[in-house]
Amino acid sequence: MSDSPKRNVKISVQIPPQHASYEQHRKAWIEADNLGVDVIFNWDHFYPLSGDADGLHFECWTQLASMAEVTERAQIGALVTCNSYRNPNLLADMARTVDHISGGRLVLGMGSGWAERDYMNYDYEFGTAASRLKDLARDMPIIRERWEKLNPGPVNGKIPILIGGGGEKVTLRIVAQHADTWHAWGDVETMTRKSAILEDWCVKVGRDPSEIERSTGLNAQTIDTAEDFVKAGVTHFTTAVSSADMDFGVAKELVQWRDAYNAG
Question: What is the tens place of the pLDDT at every residue in 155-197?
Fold first, then answer.
């Protein structure tokens, strides 16, 4: 890791828009906000990713608009938005609008897409992993350029961008060029190695690596590794909340640890 100022630890929850009614989701967003998490995420899919494949499921960005209205403190966003599903100019406008509804609390989480069933059933061109990454690289500047043209623009002048993925040859280059937060999955060793590769990409594109927050996921089985991740430079942790029971137990533990760590 490069020398950089210490970042405070952040804790987020991902509440998938599946297997629960709108009212259950609304209650869960408010509970998460009151708990004191830093970000509340959903995801951008059209069908459940676990359990009944044809179970209850809601659309991401319509839900984010509601989340923006009923929460007050936490940032909100998708982990992540599929770049393929919306024209980049339209997505920029949607993000700007939700940003205003939330009072400037939106994080634009972006990814290249992978869920073939979504593509096939909604008549999107699935292409290849390489073509979807090429599209993401093409569209990120378009999104940022549209924000410059919109009236009004984003509440705080810009909307923070999170990019998810760990591909070392293409994805991390896109992260280096455009992201404020990089989110990836893996153990401490994997995140350490990929973070070093991200730093190399930052050098190549003329970016200060310390500008990019590192983020990963934790669950009940990996919560004890949080401090090892922090030593490796990862400071933002997301835990998923099951829509079946909306259990915030792990999130509560992580929020308590965050508060103690940041105060130390």
Answer: 999 999 999 999 999 999 999 999 999 999 999 999 999 999 9
Regarding pTM above 0.90, the answer is yes
CATH number of 187's domain: 3.20.20.30
Quick check: is 225 in a domain? yes
φ/ψ region of 62 (left if φ > 0, alpha if ψ in -120 to 50, else beta) reads alpha
Q: Which domain holds residue 135?
A: 10-263
Number of domains in the chain: 1
- Kindly state whether residue 1 falls inside one of the protein's structural domains: no
Whether residue 5 lies inside any domain: the answer is no
Q: Is 3 a member of any domain?
A: no
CA 27 to chain centre: 21
